[in-house]
Every structure is written in structure tokens, then in C-alpha cells.
């Protein structure tokens, strides 16, 4: 079952985000600030009341950026990412969005596979975009889906 992202509190979002991205967790304040923006929207997925994942987008006219997208750890690698991504794309269609942009770490192969399978095309590289906890840097690959 899909719910509007703001169904969750900023604290709940931050808790889930931290489990999915232990290297770079977002704070409740970050979610609080995003929730105040009318251009930011998203949905969260539940199965039997259990949180499974969420996406959060920011729209700018006919395009939008994926701010975050993740599946809760216990549910990863079961095809749920593909399901949530399809729902996200369907939602953007209803909003007349024409392009979806995202960036993903060069080392995040599951996410790259997921996005490419959904039709996202690689459009560039942002050098040393991510800094890891051990201070090493990773490039970001940028992708776009034309819908
Ligand atoms: C990336 C993520 C969203 C993928 O969702 P998921 O539900 O785990 O992935 P799916 O089961 O739908 O699989 C997507 C593809 O990745 C592959 N995959 C899944 N887990 C994998 C793993 N651990 N290693 C390599 N490939 C993997 C799958 O085989 C599948 O490809 P296929 O359809 O060609 O077989 C999820 O793992 C996640 O939330 N990770 C942590 C946060 C994150 O990285 N978010 C994306 C940031 S851009």
C-alpha cells in the first residue's frame, strides 16, 4: 500500500533513511525542511503495516530530481525496488513531468541496475561527488529518464 510521504514524520523518515544509508544518514531536520517545500513530494510503501521503502522527489516545472530512494534493508533484493520505481514513474506521469534526473554512486551496482532496467539513461559523471566515512571519495553517475 502506498501512502503520501508526509504520512511519516520527519523523525521516522530519518530513522529509515539511516538504516538504508548508514554511510550518509539524513537528519530529521533535513526531512522537516524538505516537507516544508511545495515542490517536494513522495510516497512510502507498506506491506501489512510494515514500512518497505520510500522515494522523495523535487519537481522543477517539467522535470524532477530523485532526492532519495530506498528499500528497507530486510526487504532489499526481492524485486520491491523495481515495484516502487514503477509506482514513482506512474506518479510523475500524472503530474505531467517529462524528465526524471538522479545521481548514484559508481559503486552502487544494485541501484544502477534498477534504474537502467527502468529505462534511465546515463548522462554524465560528477567526479568525487560522494565522501565516504573513511574519507575516500566516489564519483556519482547521473541518469535521466525521458517519460
Ligand atoms: C538500490 C535499491 C533501491 C534496490 O532495490 P531492491 O529492492 O533491493 O532491488 P531489486 O530487488 O528490485 O533489484 C534490482 C536489481 O538489482 C540487482 N540486485 C539487487 N541486490 C543486489 C546486490 N546486493 N548486488 C548486486 N545486484 C543486486 C537485482 O538483481 C536486480 O537486477 P535484475 O533485475 O537484473 O536481477 C535497494 O537495494 C536500496 O534501497 N539500497 C540502499 C539505498 C540505495 O542505494 N538507494 C539508491 C540510491 S540512488
Task: Give a written overview of the molecule.
A seven-stranded mixed beta sheet has the order 1-2-3-4-5-7-6, with helices on both faces. The protein is 29% helix and 40% strand. Helix 3 links the parallel strand 4 and strand 5. The protein has 147 residues and is α+β, with helices and mostly antiparallel strands. The protein is globular, with a radius of gyration of 15 Å. It has a single domain, classed as 3-Layer(aba) Sandwich (Aminopeptidase), CATH 3.40.630.30. It has four helices and seven strands.
Binned, the helix content reads 25-40%
Total number of domains: 1
The name of the CATH architecture is: 3-Layer(aba) Sandwich
Low-confidence stretches: none
Q: Write down the secondary-structure element order.
A: EHHEEEHEHEE
Give the end-to-end Cα distance, rounded to a whole number of Å: 24 Å
Apparent shape:
globular
Q: Radius of gyration, rounded? A: 15 Å
List how many beta strands DSSP finds: 7
Broad CATH class: Alpha Beta
In round numbers, the mean pLDDT is 96
The largest pleated sheet is described as:
7 strands, mixed
Output the CATH homologous superfamily.
Answer: Gcn5-related N-acetyltransferase (GNAT)
> What is CATH's topology name?
Aminopeptidase
Strand line-up in the sheet with most strands: 1-2-3-4-5-7-6
Please report the number of helical segments: 4
Q: Which hetero compounds are present in the coordinates?
A: coenzyme A
Based on secondary structure, the structural category is alpha+beta
Bin the strand percentage: 35-45%
- Quaternary state, please? single chain
